[in-house]
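Re: the 254-residue chain
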Amino acid sequence: MAHAEAPEKLTSPSIDPDEVEKFSRMAAEWWDPDSKFKPLHKFNPARIGYIRDALISHFNLQTGAEPLKGLKLLDIGCGGGLISEPMARLGATVTAVDAAEPNIKTAKVHAEEQGMTIDYRHGTAEQLLEEGEAQFDVVLNLEVVEHVANPDQFLRDCAKLLKPGGLMVVGTINRTSKAFVLAIFGAEWVMRWLPHGTHRFDKLIKPEEIRSALSAEGLDLQAPVGVTYNPMNDEFSITGDASVNYMMLGVKAG
């Protein structure tokens, strides 16, 4: 019986091989709402709504079935495509990149099943820069910066892919005691939404660290907003509490 070739392991400053291998093993479960990616499915509605409204406001777009039509969007660290597909449905032209090849294969298959056209690529932000990739109106940097080897360089490379006047959205977990209790101990050990070890406390990123990295590349960062879980209705919503999950908007000077 022929054996499939192992996915290529990329060597890049932003790639932590242990993290890539971990998510490669889970790739087939991306679109199962009861899998290890349950938290992403749970807070997807809140973050998709927030991102849609932020882009409409920033680019002065018209609301409607495809309000993001005409925007060139990069979803870096796209995983199985849980954000890429909704952005494409909203009209954006989506390029989606991930360092774990099984994730890209999973995303491509799912998009084809949905009759969607998304430019999925196995690679890194550094490779896009090296290839002279055209700049993007929007860069989505969601739940990935806490999994790279050099967060500061990764953020700065992503910023270089953004057009002047473009918008970056960063989503991650704050490095606070509350985040440790809820996002690591609670989600991984108590609720078992995620496998033990999915997040390491020392790799979590504070908003001021994101601000420092992106400001150096000419981005003006807004205050973070929280993505907060309410156990009463089992839903996430956008709040003013950025002590656990949060998102930040950055506009590149133009």
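Residues 38-58 form the longest helix (21 residues).
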